[in-house]
Design goal:
The chain is α/β, with parallel strands linked by helices and 292 residues long. It is 47% helix and 16% strand. An eight-stranded mixed β-sheet has the order 1-2-4-3-5-6-7-8, with helices on both faces.
């Protein structure tokens, strides 16, 4: 099917790059299929408290204390974080997640990064501030932009993530063998349809330096998001960035790998341990006689 679509788009684009780019946009913006809850995720999924707000299905677990936000990627859903939810609950955190519009159990149409920002902000107002944000794949730029725009989080765990916003069209066109002319039309169509014609979105929504502690997790066999995107994330956050390389997991299995889950949640927990140390130090300081 992909080969057939690729051939058709290349043929149309050769005659009319404008039409080819518009047809590419229609394909680019559609998930095509909704991810179902896997048997291994069913118990965790069923245990969530579910609310539907403005067509978006949200999920919460735990007692509400120490909330951690989980943001899924393209053609995915919140239940993919079942392993993370289990481990976070064991350590006293309260996971919070949502099915993106047109994904999982959420209705509506696909929304842009600005739509995700509004959803994440609403979840913060309802359940936050967050101890940490964990995101996967396309959820990474969504999460990082929301944090940049004011959503609070002590720690960030970004898994198999996109750092350069333009990668979303470049990788799509490369996969289908579409040339630069169709890519340019696709970008202009995205600018017009989602961002009022703003041609600066490719810089605006790409990763920028941040001050939160960031753990980047990527796999050397990721066939969806180039591992080079991890280097961009690490370079952008500099001394605040930490890297967990993995091998043999690809793009999707990395999210359910027990070792990845353990390391990622340990990174989140480290912020709490350091906060406890600072609190203990403060208590000791209050008890000291500083007049001597």
């Amino acid at each position: 099917m992909q080969k057939l679509v690729s051939t058709a788009l290349r043929t149309i684009g050769g005659v009319s790059p404008r039409l080819g780019g518009r047809l590419a946009f229609e394909l680019w913006r559609r998930p095509l299929a909704r991810a179902a809850v896997r048997p291994s995720e069913a118990a965790v999924h069923a245990a969530a408290r579910v609310e539907v707000v403005d067509g978006v299905t949200t999920y919460t677990w735990g007692d509400g204390r120490r909330p951690v936000l989980l943001v899924h990627g393209w053609r995915s859903r919140a239940s993919r974080y079942a392993g993370f939810v289990t481990r976070l609950l064991e350590l006293g955190y309260s996971p919070v997640s949502y099915d993106a519009p047109a994904h999982g159990d959420s209705g509506g149409d696909v929304v842009s990064i600005l739509g995700h920002q509004r959803i994440i902000r609403a979840l913060e107002e309802r359940h936050g501030p967050f101890e940490a944000v964990i995101a996967h794949s396309l959820g990474v730029p969504f999460a990082l932009y929301a944090v940049r725009e004011g959503v609070a989080a002590q720690r960030l765990v970004m898994i198999s993530g996109v750092a350069n916003f333009g990668y979303l069209t470049d990788a799509f066109c490369a996969e289908l063998g579409l040339g630069p002319k169709i890519n340019r039309v696709l970008r202009r169509t995205i600018e017009r349809r989602y961002f009022d014609g703003d041609d600066q979105i490719w810089t605006r929504f790409s990763v920028r330096p941040g001050k939160a502690e960031l753990l980047v997790v990527h796999n050397d066999e990721d066939d969806v998001v180039d591992p080079a995107q991890a280097r961009l994330l690490l370079r952008s956050y500099g001394d605040h960035a930490h890297f967990l390389p993995t091998t043999g997991l690809g793009h999707r299995r990395i999210l359910s790998d027990p070792a990845v889950i353990a390391e990622a949640v340990a990174f989140v927990q480290d912020a709490d341990l350091r906060a406890d140390v600072r609190a203990d130090d403060s208590d000791v300081a209050e008890g000291l006689d500083l007049s001597a």
